[in-house]
Amino acid sequence: MLIDIDESKILKTESLNNLFKSATLGDINENCKILHTDFYLDSFNYFPITKKNESFADVFKREDDNSISHFYTENFYKNFIDKKSDFKLINDSYVLGSSPSDNYFSNLIHFLPRIFFINDKKVNLIIHRNLSNKFRSFIETICELRGIEISFTFLDEGFYNFNNSSIPEFFNITKSIKILKFFLEQILTNIKVPEFKSKIYIRREDANYRKILNEADLITILRKKGFEIINPQHFDILEQMKIFSNAKVIISPHGSNMSNIIFCQKNTKIVEISPELNNEYEQNISSRYKNIADNLNLEFQTIKVDSVDVVNHSDLSVKYIHPKILKNSNYYKNMIIKISEIEKKFNNL
């Protein structure tokens, strides 16, 4: 069985403590533990296992994300021991990682903040092959501004064998937001975007689910009320962040585009259009953006709407989401707004 070593034991045991480097951001007084050794790693949870079968759940379990309890089962251990000699070898790398389903929230909040603790000037950076070209370009821009020369190595599904490599800890969301705001707000001052109105509506037309099916009717109302209609897919990531930072009122369907509210100014009004999410496994997701808004003193409200089944889900959705959840959860359905009931809610925005 794998050994789970808690954080307090790492600090007290010299041999374990020596496996970790410590990086510090003095400007915001934040630290990062970085495991630097030989380890095995999967490309979904990014949960490292040392060659002595040691693991560190306190350090590498992501907040509000999937459970890692299956790593401590007999079935997992047996399969792991049987197959680990076949894992592809990667040397001398820094595991940044990224969402295998290319989820923007996870890429931005869980993975990206750890890039600011790279101290080397030349790095082989590990990401998932499914990461979008747009996000890869975003990473390259950040590293270029920080004077870091990077190359990418891409992970596919499965486990890998890393030698002489590093993987930083995962942060809680509050710490991630603090790090991102500190670094990226400095960059955003120099980003030029077209001038938009202070009230914007964020479309989700390119998504496979949680689209608003009668969005044309909603857009007609919002334009009459002085809203600008924006499709984030038409902008680079830094441009998206800049647009959010300039807005005073944002209306958006629930989705990863809303991650950019972390760059909004204090007291910005955020209106989330969301399906009813009542299942226990949906609770972390349902409160995700409200929690961010509360953290940043944004004015947040949610408008609940009806859900409609999706006929054909994308290949990525089918691959990474359990069929029962994909079928039953409103999170993976489309939405319809009752226009007659919702128009009055926008009068004071």
Please state the overall shape, judged from the principal axes of the Cα atoms.
Answer: globular
Q: Give the strand order, joined by hyphens, for the main sheet.
A: 12-11-13-14-15-16
Mean pLDDT across all residues, rounded?
93
Largest beta sheet, briefly? Answer: 6 strands, mixed
Helix content: 25-40%
Instruction: Enumerate how many helices there are, as a single number.
Output: 14
Distance between the termini: 56 Å
Number of domains: 2
Number of strands: 16
Encode the helix/strand succession as letters: EHHEEEEHHEEHEHEEHEHEHEEHHEHHEH
Q: Based on helices, strands and strand pairing, what is the structural class?
A: alpha/beta
Percent of residues in beta strands = 15-25%
Uncertain segments are: none
Radius of gyration: 21 Å
Describe it for me?
With 349 residues, the protein is of the alpha/beta class. The chain folds into 2 domains: 3-184, no CATH class; 199-346, 3-Layer(aba) Sandwich (Rossmann fold). It has helices at residues 7-12, 14-17, 57-60, 74-83, 104-111, 133-145, 173-188, 215-224, 237-246, 283-286, 288-295, 315-320, 323-328, 339-342; strands spanning 3-4, 20-25, 30-42, 49-50, 54-55, 88-91, 94-95, 122-128, 149-155, 159-168, 199-202, 228-230, 249-253, 269-275, 299-308, 334-336.
Features:
alpha/beta, 349 residues, 2 domains, single chain, Rossmann fold, globular, 25% strand, five-stranded mixed β-sheet, 14 helices, 31% helix, six-stranded mixed β-sheet
